[in-house]
Structures are given as C-alpha cells and as structure tokens.
Design brief:
The protein is mainly beta and 221 residues long. Helices cover 5% and strands 59% of the residues. The strands form 2 sheets. A 10-stranded mixed β-sheet has the order 1-6-7-3-9-11-13-19-15-18, with no helix packed on it. It has a 10-stranded mixed β-sheet with strand order 2-5-8-4-10-12-14-20-16-17.
Amino acid sequence: MNNLCSYEPRREEHQDSAAPLGRATRGRLEFVRGASLVTIGTGAAMPDLYRAHFEGPTPRVTMRDGAVSIQYRRLSLAEWARYALLWGHHAAVIALNAAIPWQLFIRDGVSRLTADLHGLQLSGLTVTGGASEVALQLPRPAGVVAIRIAGGASNLTLHRPSGVAAAIRVDGGASKLTFDDQHFGGVGGGIRLATPDATTKADRYEIEIAGGASKLTVATR
C-alpha cells in the first residue's frame, strides 16, 4: 500500500479531514511545525484511520502508509492566543483508530494539548521544542513505552492506569514535581524516580524530560 493524500487549506476556515484505515497495521501521527489548542482521542469502531476537525488556521494534512502528518503555517503566540479567545475551544480535534498501535511525534513544541489515549495502543510519544499545559491520559503499555520531551516542560500531567510501572528522569532540575505519592518543591540537577517494579515489569513507561520541568505530575488515575 502506498497511498498519499494531501490537503492544502486556505489560511482560516473550518475543515474536516479523514482517511480510510485500508491495510494499515500501525499508525503515526506527527505535527511537523508545532501544535497548540489540540485535543486527541480514540475511536474504537470507526472505519477510518483518523478523523480530524480543524478551525481557524487549518494546517496542511498528508497521509501515507498509515502516517498522518499535520503542518501548520508559522504562527506567533499572540496569533494563537487571539484564535483561542475567538473560538473558546480547541483548534484541532483528532480521533485515532484504536484497532492499531500508534506513535505520536510533535516537533517544534506543543501547548494546550489534551489527549485521552486510554483506549489506544501507544507505541511511543516524542516531543521536541518543549511542552506547556499538556494533560495526557495514558493507556496500559505493551512492552516498554518511551515518552520523551526535549526542551523542557511546564504544567505537564501524565496519568497512567493503576498498577502500571513507570520510571521518570528529569534533566536540568525540577520544581513542583509529583510522582505518585512523592512531592518535591524543587530539585536541582538531574533526578530519577521509579516505581518499585519499574525494572522487573516488561510492560512499563520510561519517561524522559530534557531541559527541566515545572509543575510536573506523573501519577495513576
């Protein structure tokens, strides 16, 4: 299968986007040029690989062999703030087919992201450029699932199911860090925390934050 779909939008509009699941056995969602005001969920029974609704500065969306690429034009923080005030809701609402495993990539930073992934098979999550005001509901992992955020993080919350093993490493120091029942007001340098079974369980999360963190919570829900 070698399907290539592309949509080139006008700069400001409402737009729905979708692609059939076809023969895809795994998925990849990538934001090429940052993301803001995004909510991500899952669809267990839908026939599509993904479905998305965009408002405001809609992006260019391409899809090939199960990989969905979303690219916004470059926007200033002031422009994002203006759109947020006008809409009062997210700029992008995306549903991923939960029948296949997914990898998520966000390049050039992310802000105001909410993702309920508890029904998804998550293979990994990578963010470059930093993360701010991000809340993730994680699924039960299959194998070692890596979550890597480079560029620092603030107001980041990662909730995992009860009983799931996890380890976290924060480089560059942290303030207001919560890891399950452990709370830290401020920690200089690097820090590594882990559940007692993090080295023995085959299914677990390995979380890495490079660049420091503020108001970081990693806990079970």
